[in-house]
Automatic annotation (TrEMBL):
Keywords: Amino-acid biosynthesis, Cytoplasm, Diaminopimelate biosynthesis, Lysine biosynthesis, NAD, NADP, Oxidoreductase. Residues 128-264 form the Dihydrodipicolinate reductase C-terminal domain. The active site is at H155, K159. Gene3D superfamilies: Dihydrodipicolinate Reductase, domain 2, NAD(P)-binding Rossmann-like Domain. Residues 3-125 form the Dihydrodipicolinate reductase N-terminal domain. It catalyses: (S)-2,3,4,5-tetrahydrodipicolinate + NAD(+) + H2O = (2S,4S)-4-hydroxy-2,3,4,5-tetrahydrodipicolinate + NADH + H(+); (S)-2,3,4,5-tetrahydrodipicolinate + NADP(+) + H2O = (2S,4S)-4-hydroxy-2,3,4,5-tetrahydrodipicolinate + NADPH + H(+). NADP(+) binds at R35. It comes from Desulfuromonas thiophila. This is 4-hydroxy-tetrahydrodipicolinate reductase. GO terms for cellular component: cytosol. The gene is dapB. Its main location: cytoplasm.
Amino acid sequence: MLSIAVTGAAGRMGGRLIAAVQESTGLRLGAAIERPGHPALGQDAGTLAGCGPLHIPLTDDLAAALRHCDILIDFTFPAVTLENARVCAAAGKKMVIGSTGFSPAQRDELATIMRDSALVLAPNMSVGVNACFKLLKEAAAILGNGFDVEIVELHHNKKKDAPSGTAVRMGEVVAEALGRDYNQVANYHREGLCGERSHEEIGMQTVRGGDIVGEHTVYFIGMGERIEISHRAMSRDMFARGAARACLWLSDKERGFYDMQDVLGLR
Ligand SMILES: NC(=O)C1=CN([C@@H]2O[C@H](COP(=O)(O)OP(=O)(O)OC[C@H]3O[C@@H](n4cnc5c(N)ncnc54)[C@H](O)[C@@H]3O)[C@@H](O)[C@H]2O)C=CC1
Ligand SMILES: O=C(O)C1=N[C@H](C(=O)O)C[C@H](O)C1
């Protein structure tokens, strides 16, 4: 039985992660961690998550919590994740990371911090989105340069990063399949007399509002026809189940930097 710690335990994903861990054969919640000063510190993690009392109070002491845990699931924010990775690395623990919005430098820093351990980092842990990554690669390879690519993502009004990590990964997948450098061709902004669309660019559009869990559409727009590949998340539970699955997959890995494509055998 693997003992799992969850950071961001009182957050939107935190509760779903605690429930998913408890529902997974082979996993049990070992600790639930929140930021210092969080009003829910001391409350029972299971009760907070809506899955009944687990007699595990929320703590802000990650180092102490990790002593009796095997893997940390972290869905917080990049700067927090990097701090937590330092604590995990010092304790020789593995990580499953769902936080999004890492800069390339932060991603490199994460790899350096965790170089002697094992981690899964993925902007989206749902099976459906990971299947979409494969479909996008194939669609882009078939359609080639004859179609303009635009990506639109919709999320709730509390989301802090934009575009979503999933949208960026979709852009990267398509760009790579078309032999382009995503960082050179991503266009995040059109306003005023901005000129005709260039052939190579990949438009990235962001919508924020209400309680939208997460929706992504990649448009391949040709002359007289259009293909749309869409994914709509109806709840956060499948992200959480993906993270639990990643923990089980990681259990026999000593070291390495992986993502959900590895976990799901989609490489
Ligand atoms: N990879 C995936 O499948 C998914 C990734 N995400 C990402 O997960 C992240 C979190 O999303 P939400 O749960 O919606 O945000 P949220 O704001 O509801 O939760 C984040 C939690 O982290 C806590 N936190 C902040 N500092 C902390 C610290 N030092 N130690 C422990 N906890 C700390 C906050 O108090 C908060 O409760 C975002 O980056 C989001 O994009 C969200 C859904 C799916
Ligand atoms: O912040 C969220 O909510 C989500 N974030 C992830 C992302 O940025 O791609 C995944 C999911 O769409 C929900």
